[in-house]
UniProtKB/TrEMBL annotation:
This is Uncharacterized protein. It comes from the Bacteria.
Length: 68
C-alpha cells in the first residue's frame, strides 16, 4: 500500500467511527426527548431506539469489514 491508499483507508475508518458516535448520540437524544411520552404513539420511542440501534450495528459491521 502506498501512502495515499493508507490515508484514504484511515479517512474512511475515521468517518465510520464518527458516524457510529453520532448514531449513538442520536439514540441517547431519543431516550431523553420528552416528545415521545407526551405526543408520540405508545411504542414510537422504543421503535425509534430500536431503529437507531440497527443503524449503529450496520455501521459497526461495516467498520469491522473494512478494517480486517
Amino acid at each position: 500500500m502506498d501512502l495515499d491508499q493508507l490515508r484514504t483507508k484511515a479517512c474512511r475508518t475515521l468517518a465510520l467511527i464518527n458516524l457510529i458516535e453520532r448514531s449513538n448520540d442520536k439514540c441517547k437524544e431519543i431516550l431523553k426527548c420528552s416528545y415521545y411520552p407526551i405526543y408520540g404513539k405508545p411504542n414510537e420511542q422504543s421503535e425509534m431506539v430500536e431503529f437507531q440501534n440497527r443503524v449503529t450495528q450496520r455501521l459497526v459491521n461495516n467498520l469491522k469489514r473494512t478494517t480486517t
